[in-house]
Predict the structure.
Amino acid sequence: MNKQKKLVILLTLVLCIFIMPLQAFAATGGNHIVAPQWDNTSTVNMSLRCADYNAHCDVRVLGYSGTTKITGTVKLQMRIAGIYCTQKTWNVSASGQSLVFEENQPLAMKGMYRLVLDVDVTRKGTTENIWLDKVTRYS
């Protein structure tokens, strides 16, 4: 084996040794489900139910103790030709550590719908962004 091949193998092994001990920051939920871990946010629950040409959108964000503000948007989107197009946008905000949002929105047709949450959670002077989506098919 020539010197270049040995050097490439050695560098690859050294790189693998440095990459292996990296940590992934996530919290495990029940039943071995991996869930995001946030600094300011304890829980995020989202629900999108479609029936009778109506979408029921439900979002709940709970910050840790010391959370002072939760602000952002909730969007209902429909997938058209492979692209999600926004049907409705709601501005949401709460003072304190919990945000509860519930809305019904009429739907024009059946198809694939997505609920998008994009909020900033402020706790002890530090703000973190939460972006999550929930997809459902209305058929």
In short: The chain has a mean pLDDT of 88.
